[in-house]
UniProtKB/TrEMBL annotation:
Gene3D superfamilies the UniProt entry points to: 3.30.1120.10, Alkaline Phosphatase, subunit A, Helix hairpin bin
GO cellular component: endoplasmic reticulum
A GO molecular-function descriptor: metal ion binding
Any Pfam family: Sulfatase
Needed cofactors: Ca(2+)
Transmembrane segments: 202-226, 232-255
Keyword Plastid: no
UniProt name for this protein: Steroid sulfatase
Organism from which the protein derives: Phocoena sinus (Vaquita)
UniProt entry tagged with the keyword Hydrolase: yes
Protein family according to the UniProt entry: Belongs to the sulfatase family.
PROSITE patterns linked to this entry: SULFATASE_2
């Protein structure tokens, strides 16, 4: 009897050749099996390593945006009397930019540029009229859904995204429930804040001011016998003034409840909005968002209501500063910044979080109360302020911190823009930039990490709403920063630092002075913009202007016609878009903040 494949003490008995063949085959199969297992294990380890590396390489982002804060307000920018220890602490741990520029000197277009990395004229968020903001919450204009925000890009990369605070970029398009302009339609998973701020002066005070001036002018001319003014003209003007005053009474009764409300995601939670401990409430919600997402990459945009009027502060800060209501509000905002930094430290997230702090434009220098108290901030040494493109209107604080990645305590003076946050955040999150549109921002990381010592912006274009107001040129291999104005606002009264008669400066018509040739400054030598250059003082005067005008022409060729989001049709109040937390007509009143807050996600 033959035994095939029976092995004993290393030998085979009858049928030895077959036994050896079986032995070699068995060994080969065992080696192959082991190789497959090892390959599988290696692939698994590689997958785990890649996943962990990917998680580490996806930093968190906390973007802090103040409203109307001047570059001269924080202590780290030279203020000796306004206490901002937490903003200063942020600056000590990161990079302070001395030449961060808002893409627009007004809230709405500036915020649109910040969110999209594009000049606001590209998205239709630049007004062609004197009204550069939405007057009603029930307006149909806003940031178009076709625009891509950095929140959309990061959400596609797996980030949790939230906007807490001020949105100010529209709500709905066709009905009050479509919320086409709402933050949740622009890439944010979570929203808690307000979509609108008040515009009382535009609605009431400016028309009343115009009527009063007209009445007084006609009365004086008639008294001097220079003009014959029929009595009916005076009657019509008095009647018009009465209508405006009547409108004011209606405004006080209805407008604030209708226009000023807090939302949490898609629902109104407080109408009218209460300022009581508002900063504390929004700050606590921001901290909770960070805590909920501590183990996943997140984007938090905390958009402060400070320092826009109406100024407010809680009892812990009211009356405590050396700068009245403005100082109280600024110090409360600084406290909020500190709370967010503390949460990042407590959760050990600081080393994997890029924190950015800035303002949407310069301080509003014309904000003065009837009693003469200044409710606007400081733009330091710079001329002008909010609503104009003098340096005071667009040069804002710019602080970025990322421990271990960005050098602490560094100061840079290269021209950068708030549009630069878009490509910077996108690249760090691993997201490609959209290829179907022009992105005007530039990645900041080479500059922040010292890999480059020059801004990628050779030219920057400064718009006053729809109109190209000025061009900035930082030539290669030169320290000069040229700035050419095509027109400038008419400050009033003469010698003032703002347009106090109209409360803000306007962008065209009788309110501006046009310059041909353009008004030219070297900002590197004359940051206060006091001494315009001439062909005599600057031999290359015409050459410089020619280069800048050619750059402006090339830029204009990249612009496309888009729907005007601030047209009259988009600005007017539309009853069918009016949001209300109750069904009782114009009497919209509710307060569900506490109940909803306890169960928020």
């Amino acid at each position: 009897m033959f035994w095939f494949g029976v092995e004993r003490r290393g030998h085979c008995y009858p049928g030895r050749k077959k036994c050896l063949f079986w032995k070699q085959t068995h060994r080969t199969e065992r080696i192959q099996f082991f190789a497959v297992k090892m390959r599988t294990l290696l692939l698994l380890l590689l997958f785990i390593y890649e996943a962990r590396s990917h998680a580490v390489s996806m930093p968190n982002f906390v973007l802090l945006m103040a409203d109307d804060l001047g570059i001269g307000d924080p202590g780290c920018y030279g203020n000796k009397t306004l206490r901002t220890p937490n903003i200063d602490r942020l600056a000590r741990g990161g990079v302070s930019s001395r030449s961060t520029l808002a893409a627009s000197p007004l809230c709405k277009p500036s915020r649109a540029a910040f969110m999209t990395g594009r000049y606001p004229i590209r998205s239709g968020m630049a007004s062609r009229s004197q009204v550069g903001v939405f007057v009603f919450s029930a307006s149909s204009g806003g940031l178009p859904h076709s625009e891509i925000t950095f929140a959309k890009l990061l959400k596609n990369q797996g980030y949790s995204t939230a906007l807490i605070g001020k949105w100010h970029l529209g709500t709905s398009c066709h009905n009050r429930t479509d919320l086409c302009h709402h933050p949740l339609s622009h890439g944010f998973d979570y929203f808690h804040g307000l979509v609108f701020t008040r515009a009382l002066r535009l609605l009431v005070f400016l028309p009343l001011q115009v009527i009063t001036i007209t009445l007084l002018t006609l009365a004086v001319l008639r008294w001097l016998g220079l003009v014959q003014v029929p009595p009916c003209i005076f009657f019509c003007l008095f009647f018009l003034a009465a209508l405006v005053l009547g409108g004011l009474l209606c405004f006080l009764h209805y407008f604030r409840p209708l226009n000023c409300f807090l939302m949490r995601n898609r629902d109104i939670t407080q109408q009218p909005m209460s300022y009581d401990n508002l900063t504390q409430r929004l700050t606590a919600d921001a901290a909770q968002f960070i805590q909920r997402n501590a183990k996943t990459p997140f984007l938090l945009v905390l958009a402060f209501l400070h320092m826009h009027t109406a100024l407010f502060s809680s009892k812990d800060f009211a009356g405590k500063s050396k700068h009245g209501a403005y100082g109280d509000a600024a110090e409360e905002m600084d406290w909020s910044v500190g709370q967010i930094l503390d949460v990042l430290d407590e959760l050990k997230l600081a080393n994997n979080t890029l924190v950015y702090f800035s303002s949407d434009q310069g301080a509003h220098v014309e904000e003065v109360t009837i009693k003469g108290e200044g409710h606007g901030g400081s733009n330091g040494i710079y001329k002008g302020g909010k609503a104009n493109n003098w340096e005071g209107g667009i040069r804002v604080p710019g602080i970025l911190r990322w421990p271990g990645v960005i050098q602490a305590g560094l100061e840079i003076d290269e021209p950068t823009s708030n549009m630069d946050i878009f490509p910077t955040v996108a690249k760090l999150a691993g997201s490609p930039l959209p290829e179907d549109r022009i992105i005007d921002g530039r990645d900041l990381m080479p500059l922040l990490q010292g890999r480059s010592h020059r801004s990628d912006h050779e030219f920057l274009f400064h718009y006053c709403n729809f109109y190209l107001n000025a061009v900035r040129w930082h030539p290669q291999n030169s320290t000069s920063i040229w700035k050419a104005f095509f027109f400038t606002p008419k400050f009033f009264p003469e010698g003032a630092n703002g347009c106090f008669a109209t409360h803000v400066c306007f962008c065209h018509g009788q309110y501006v002075t046009y310059h041909d040739p353009p008004l030219l400054f070297d900002i590197s030598q004359d940051p206060r913009e006091r001494n315009p250059l001439t062909p005599t003082s600057q031999p290359r005067f015409r050459e410089i202007l020619e280069t800048m005008q050619e750059a402006a022409a090339r830029h204009a060729e990249t612009l496309q016609d888009v729907p005007n989001q601030l047209s009259l049709g988009n600005l007017i109040w539309k009853p069918w878009l009016q949001m209300c937390c109750s069904s009782s007509g114009l009497f919209c009143q509710c307060d569900w903040e506490k109940q909803v807050g306890r169960g928020s996600h």
